[in-house]
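Lecture notes, unit on protein representations.

Consider one protein chain, 845 amino acids long.
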Amino acid sequence: MEGPVAKVGLDDNTEAEFELRELPGRISLFGFIAGYSKVRIRDEDPLNIKAAELLGELHDALKRDGYGLNEQGKAGHVLQVFLVRILFCLFADDTGLFSPKDSFLELIEQTREDGADTGAQIARLFQALNTAREKRQRSLEEQFAPFPFVDGRLFEEPLSIPEFSSEMRRLVLDCCRVQWASISPAIFGAMFQKVIELDARDRRRQLGAHYTSEANIRKLIGPLFLDELRAEFERVKRHKNKLFEFHKKLATLNFLDPACGCGNFLAITYRELRGLELDILREAAKFGQALGSVFKALQVDVDQFHGIELEEFPAQVAQVAMWLTDHQMNVVAGREFGEFFARLPLTKSANIRCGNALRLDWEAFVPPTKLNYILGNPPFVGAKFLNDQRREDFSFVSKGVANAGLLDYVAGWYLKAAHYLVGTKEGFVSRDKKQFEDVRFASQQNHPPTFDEVFLTLEQRDREARRRIRCAFVSTNSITQGEQVGVLWSELFRRGMKIHFAHRTFKWTNEAPGKAAVHCAIIGFGRENAATKRLFDYAEVDGPAQERAASNINPYLVDGPDVLITRRDAPLCAVPKIGIGNKPIDGGHYLFTPEEKAGFLSREPQAEKWFRRWIGADEFINGYERWCLWLGNCPPEELKRMPECVKRVEAVRAFRLGEGLNKKAGERKKRPPESTRKLARTPTRFHVENMPEATYLVVPSASSERRPFVPIGFMSPNVLASNLVLIVSNATLFHFGILGSTMHMAWARYVCGRLKSDCRYSAQIVYNNFPWPQKLEDKGRAAIETASRAVLDARSAHPLATLADLYEEFQPDFSPGTFGWTGRPEIRWSARGGRRRAGLAGRTD
C-alpha cells in the first residue's frame, strides 16, 4: 500500500485494512454505526432451526391454552394469522423496519411478568400497524410511535385477543432476542410450516428434513434463467444503453410457482434478481449516471411473483416471506449506497393464491402474455399412496392420458404446465371473442381493423407468449425411470415439450438427523428448443454435479434421441418368458422362519413334507432362510388329519375375507377388494402360482445401487419363489450369460424403475424390451455358455458367501482370486460380434 492506511475493527470481531483514499468505496463497512444489520443468507444456518423451534414452543403454548383452534383441535386460522404477524414483527424489529431497533422487544418487556396484559398489548400493536399515523388516536400514536403503518392487509383482519401466561411472555421475549436479520425467510418459512404440523417430540428430529434447501433451489434457478441473465449482464454492462434496457427487462420478468408452499423458490428467486439489479446499479454509477435516491432507481419488485398453495398457512407465510426478503435486499442496497430505506406502507405484494393447483385455471390466475417462468417443487407422493382427494385431482388433470394411474403425483404439474404452454385448440382469446359482437374499432388508418383482425393479433401474441415460457420442477426421479417414462413423456412430447436441461438423480440435501432418503431429479422444459442443452450428472448421488453440454436430452436424462420404452407383455425377441414368482396373499400365515418351522413341526411332524424353501429378493441375495407351508396339492383327507395346518388354512381364509389378522403386523386388514375375497373360497391356493417343474432362473425385483450387477442365479424346482423375484423357466446358460452381462446391466440401469436409487427390475420394461443378440453362430453361443459356467464356478468357490457378499461394490479385496472389488466375476460382451469372456475383472460399466 502506497498511501496512508486505515485499520479498523468491525462489529463482527473482524478487521479491515485499506488505504484512506479507498474510504468512499468502503463506507458500507461502517453500516453498523448507523444501525444497519448484515444480511447473511445461509443454507442451513442453525439459527433458522433455533428460531423455528422457539416459535414452535409459542405455538404449542397457545394451542394448549385453546387459542385459535379449529373444530379438529388443531391450529386454526386465527392462531396461524397471529403467528404470521408475530413473525413479521420479529423481523421488522431486528432489521430496521421498526425504529429504533428493538422497539417490539421493549414493548413486550414493559408488560407485566405474569403476562396478564401481554396479549392485549400485542393486539393494540396490531391495530396501530394497520392504521395510518394521521388516523391513529393520539394516545395510540404516542405509545406506538416507533411502529409505522404497514398496510398490505397483513394486520387488517381483527383477531381475538389471546390470554398470555408468564411462559408465553417469556417465549416471545426469547424470540425477540434471536438475530432475525441473519435468517433466510425462504428457508425459515418452510421450517415454520413444520412447526405447526409436528408434535413437539418430533420437531427436533424432523425440522430440517422437510424443506428444499437453498443449494437445491440454485440447481434449478441457475440453468432455468439466472445463469443466462448473468451472462447477458456481463455482455451489456459496458454499454450504457444496453445496460439500461437490460434493467428494464428484469422488471418485466414474471415467475409462477404452482406449488409454492412457504415461498422458498419465489423468495430466493426474488433475492437473486435484486442482487443482479444491484450489480446493474453499480455499473450504471460508473457511467456517471445520477441515480438520485437509489430506491427510486429500483425496478424489480415483489408483484412480479405468483404462487399457488393448497393450504392457507404456508400461503400466508409465503406472502410475508416475500416482504421480508424485499426488506433484507433494501437493507443491502441501502448499505451499498449509503441510504436507509424501508418500503412502507406495503403497497405491492406477491400474488399468492390459496387453492388447488391441479384444479385452478392457471390462465385466469396469470395470463400467459404476462408470464416468463414456471418453477417449483411439487409434492412427492407415489401413485400407490394417493388419498381419494389427490387421486381425483390427478384424474382431473390427466384426463385422456393412457395409463395415467401409473404416474406419481408430481407428474400432474408437468401435465398442467404443458397444457398451459399449449393452450386449447382455439386459444382463450378466440374463446372469449364469442362473448362479443363484430364491431369496428377507432383507428387512424384508412381501413380500421375489424374485430376479427384485433382478436387474431391478440391470439398470435398469446401463442407466441406460451411458446417462450420456460418451466422447471424438482421431482422424484421415478418419472425418469421405468414404466412412468413412456406414460408421461409420450403425452408431453405430443404437446410439443422439449427438455432444456436436467439434473440426473441426486440425493436430497439437508442435515437433519433421522431424515428419509429422497432421490430427486430436476427437469427444465418448454416448447422452444434450447440453444444450449445442459446435463448435470452425479458420480455419487450426494456428491457434486458435473455439467456437460448435450445435443439432446431424452426423458431418461441421457444425451441421446427421444426414444421411449413402453410396457410389453411379451419379450421383443424369441427368448423364454419371464414372470413374477408366487403371490400367496396369506397374511404371512404360510411363511415361517427356521425357528417357527421347528416349533410347528414339533406339534405336527407329519406336515414336514409340505414345507418348501421360500425365496424372495432378500432371501436370494442375503442368504436368509425362510420356509413356506404349501398345501395347494395336499389331499383334503390328509389335510383334515393335520389340525395345525387346518388352523393356518382358516387363518388365511379369514385374512382374505378381511376378518383375520396379518401375522406380521398383528392388525386387521381393511376390507379387501372383491377379487381377494373370492380367493377365500380356495384358501390353500395362492393368488399367483408360478412353480416351474425344472431348474429356473431367478432375477431379484430390487437390488442395491451399490451393486454394479443385479445378482441372478439358477434355482432348484423344489424351492418356491415369491413375487419379489422374477423367474425365467427353461432358461439356459446362454440366457444366464446375457442377463448377467455388462451390456444388459447398462440397459437395466437406464430403463429400470427405482426405489430411492436402487434398481427395480421390471419384466414388462427391462426384460421384454431388451434386444437380445439374434444372429450368433454356434461358436459364439458356446463361448457365452463357457463364460457363464466360469462365473458359476467362481461363486461355488465361496460356499459360505452370500450373493450380497460377492457383489457389493465396495467390498475389500481379501486375497487374490476372491470376489473383492478388484476380483468380481462378470461377463463382458461386445455387442458387435457377440464376443464374451468371463473372469475376475474390475468394473466394466
